[in-house]
Design brief:
alpha+beta, two-stranded antiparallel sheet, 10 strands
Length: about 375
């Protein structure tokens, strides 16, 4: 049970075909309820607000620090669940488990170098042909690798963002069960959350990803005017805040050569910008209601974690391909959205600005009510 909703118990499972059922299966506890199938756009504004409040309550419930001391994915041990290598939903492995974010980020850089040594030692000229603009050369790659590596120790979030929490990476309509009577009234109440196969233990900061239903990108319903495709992120939504001139919208024909009208879709993606803002408000309120937590950094988590999320998602190749997060990461040295705006030259030696923690490791503490607490090491 997690704060008023149930996680189904697993009684048995198999991941191969060599079992009496001759197929992979999961035998789990039955939880009453049903999913929403019509999507957010089919709900009234009142129902949308109720749904957003409910999902914010769910995310706040999962924001409670837990007594783990490693970053990674949950897997079955001999007698209990343990933290293993960090896996994505698509089974991409990031290695680990890790004692700190510094360890994780450095492991990602090392993986990039292994890719380079495996794939790019056959180049006939100093240019990676797979890149269009800007061109990426081996020299540029080496410079960016050095820059990002030097930024890692200084790119530390506030301690409020660091407690380890349980993360469900796929909070979507299909995985949330609602009480049927609450669906009919529009006052949504969650009875269960399913599909925990990709569950992870992460620093709170890395969980600041909006539910899928609130995500927007720069390519739907058509390419947003002025949108930079290098800013297409999995974790950070593209904000649509105005329609632009309808005369500049593309002309698209559907079945029977009927013109597709984009106005409802455009209004829909703009509405999600404001619904995300409402989600942020509800999330902060739920932290206070559930845990008496009035910490300002955690209350503004989804707003302030943007650049940390980009730094975590990006890599050397994307920086070489022109993503602005590389420059933002250079300037972001003392906290979320706090920039040295007057600095014109790239920052190479951030040590001149004072003492910065080189690593924040997690250790188990019996004195802490949360069990696992960050331990900071300085120069």
């Amino acid at each position: 049970m997690i704060q008023n909703f149930t996680v189904p118990k697993i009684f048995a499972f198999e991941t191969n075909f060599t079992n009496p059922a001759c197929a992979p299966y999961v035998l789990m506890e039955f939880i009453p309820g049903r999913t929403l199938t019509n999507g957010l756009s089919k709900l009234s504004r009142e129902q949308q607000f109720s749904y957003i409040k409910t999902i914010a309550r769910l995310k706040a419930s999962l924001s409670k620090p837990l007594p783990f001391d490693r970053i990674g994915s949950i897997k079955c041990g001999d007698r209990q669940h343990v933290v293993g290598p960090l896996m994505t939903l698509t089974q991409r492995c990031f290695g680990g488990p890790y004692k700190s974010m510094v360890d994780l980020w450095r492991a990602r850089l090392e993986k990039q170098f292994l890719h380079v040594l495996r794939e790019w030692c056959h180049l006939e000229k100093d240019l990676f042909e797979s890149f269009s603009e800007p061109e990426c050369t081996p020299q540029m790659y080496a410079e960016l690798a050095q820059l990002l590596s030097s930024l890692i120790p200084h790119f530390q979030p506030p301690k409020s963002y660091l407690p380890l929490v349980l993360h469900h990476p796929d909070i979507a309509f299909r995985n949330i069960l609602f009480d049927e009577s609450s669906i009919s009234t529009g006052d949504f109440k969650i009875t269960g959350l399913i599909d925990w196969g990709g569950a992870q233990i992460l620093p709170l900061m890395f969980t600041a990803k909006y539910p899928d239903v609130l995500r927007t990108n720069g390519e739907y319903p058509f390419e947003k005017p002025g949108w930079d495709y290098n800013e297409d992120w999995d974790t950070v939504p593209c904000d649509w805040t105005s329609t632009g001139a309808p005369s500049e919208w593309p002309i698209v024909y559907g079945l029977g050569r009927k013109t597709i009208y984009f106005r409802p879709s455009v209004r829909g993606v703009i509405s999600k910008f404001y619904l995300r803002a409402y989600f942020n408000v509800c999330y902060a309120e739920e932290l206070r209601t559930q845990y008496g937590d009035a910490d300002l950094a955690r209350a503004t988590l989804f707003r302030d974690a943007t650049y940390y999320m980009k730094f975590h998602e990006g890599d050397i190749l994307e920086a070489a391909h022109g993503r602005t997060w590389g420059k933002e990461s250079e300037e972001l040295i003392i906290g979320p959205n706090m920039y040295l705006g007057s600095v014109e030259e790239p920052l190479r030696d951030l040590g001149i600005f004072g003492e910065y923690p080189l690593a924040i490791e997690y250790q188990t503490s019996m004195e802490s009510p949360y069990g696992a607490v960050p331990k900071t090491y300085h120069k």
